[in-house]
Amino acid sequence: MNETYVTLRGWLGTDVRHRLAGDTPVADFRLGVTPSWFDAKRSEWVDATTQWYTVKAWRQLADNCRDSLRRADPVVVHGRLSQSSWVKDGVEHSALEVTAVSVGHDLSLGTSQFRRTQPKRPERGESRVDEAAVASQGVASQGVASQGVASEGVAGAAA
User: Can you give the pTM of this predicted structure?
Assistant: First the structure.
């Protein structure tokens, strides 16, 4: 199945709304995107009509959006684009929605401070990784270092 991925740069038009869909966190917010260009004849910037998108984020990304984003923040969103249409009172309506894969502050407009979150731990008796499959690949005892991401390398890169 082909899906359309987009990257949008805009401003939060609402605060992040966070809720649970069953046991799964989901966050949504409205993103306003206003294309603009410089009109050389008038020597000024011209804004086009603002396009509004509903952005949805799931799981850990939902929690991180709730904790990091506020109304009027400039953000960059990357995700799957979808459109829904409906008729209400004889008038056809449509809405654009992006299911986010990544969300972040637009650092061309300001600064932000990153804080890594701890992944949620599985409940007792659950396993996030099929340990038998990992062991059969011979990487169970080598951990992250076997993937070329040894902790010394990460710390050394930051220094």
Answer: 0.69
Give the per-residue pLDDT at 124.
59
d(CA 75, CA 11): 6
Look at phi and psi of residue 61 and say left if phi exceeds 0, alpha if psi is from -120 to 50, else beta: alpha
Cβ-contact 15, 71 below 8 angstroms: yes
- Single-letter code of the amino acid located at 114: F
Low-confidence ranges of the chain (pLDDT < 70): 1, 120-159
- The DSSP secondary-structure symbol of 122 reads P
Distances (CA, A) of 136 to 77, 113, 130, 131, 140: 38, 40, 10, 9, 8
